[in-house]
Specification:
Layout: H1 2-16, H2 19-28, H3 42-49, H4 51-75, H5 88-108, H6 121-131, H7 133-150, H8 153-175, H9 182-199, H10 201-209, H11 215-224
Helix pairs in contact: 1-4, 1-5, 3-4, 4-5, 4-6, 5-6, 5-9, 6-7, 7-8, 8-9
């Protein structure tokens, strides 16, 4: 079990790297959590620092989980670990999920910034790339469609997260595609959805109240120097 402990620790540490906080402090001289929505995620970087910084932070946050699920999982993979599934592939998928889950937890509760990080969407996307690229592509498509329709990142992110287990279910049970480790993946993906919905609970409240701001509205506020973004 020592290998498993090392995997979890390394995955949590790489997930904890506070990309947006480091960028905002080192390049712009302030903590991103003091601006905009107060969140350390890529969306707030887009809002406050612009698309270039937002894209950079998003890519790095996605990459953290890809490293955890692809590199760390293989580096410390031990087929004798005590998981009882049908095939070794299923066992390795569980190791990937453990690594990915630890990276997401690290991103949301980063040890390097008082356990106050982002909301885990970009890191969660990295986990999906490493484990199930087909479902990831479907989730990206859902995100883009919802964002095009509503211009709201939180709603788009939640919709994309829900689309992942839903696409797994439809492909396996309705279309009849054979998906390796389906039972393991569906449980894991539902767990990720619960975690990400929990991290977006304030956004959901604002969505219900109709007060969640859209990217277009936020851009106009920034352009005219009004609202929290100009503080």
């Amino acid at each position: 079990m020592l290998n498993l402990a090392i995997v979890v620790l390394l995955s949590y540490i790489i997930g904890s790297i506070p990309t947006s906080i480091m960028l905002s402090k080192w390049v712009h001289g302030f903590d991103i959590r003091t601006k905009g929505s107060g969140n350390a995620g890529g969306t707030n970087v887009f809002r406050v620092l612009g698309w270039k910084s937002g894209l950079l932070v998003t890519i790095v946050d996605v990459g953290k989980a890809v490293v955890a699920t692809v590199l760390f999982a293989r580096l410390f993979w031990d087929p004798t670990l005590p998981f009882y599934n049908r095939t070794p592939f299923d066992d390795f998928t569980i190791i990937q999920m453990i690594c990915g889950g630890a990276a997401i937890v690290g991103h949301i509760w980063t040890m390097f910034a008082g356990f106050k990080g982002g909301k885990g969407i970009a890191t969660g996307a990295g986990v999906l790339i490493g484990i199930a690229p087909t479902e990831f592509a479907i989730s990206v498509g859902v995100f883009l469609i919802v964002f095009w329709a509503y211009k709201t990142v939180s709603l788009s992110s939640i919709s994309a997260a829900v689309a992942f287990p839903l696409s797994l279910f439809v492909r396996h049970n309705i279309i009849g595609d054979e998906i390796h480790s389906y039972k393991t993946l569906i449980v894991f993906s539902l767990s990720v959805v619960v975690l990400l919905v929990y991290s977006h609970r304030q956004n959901i409240k604002r969505l219900i109240e109709g007060t969640e701001k859209k990217i277009t509205a936020l851009s106009r506020e920034k352009l005219h120097g009004s609202g929290k973004l100009s503080q």
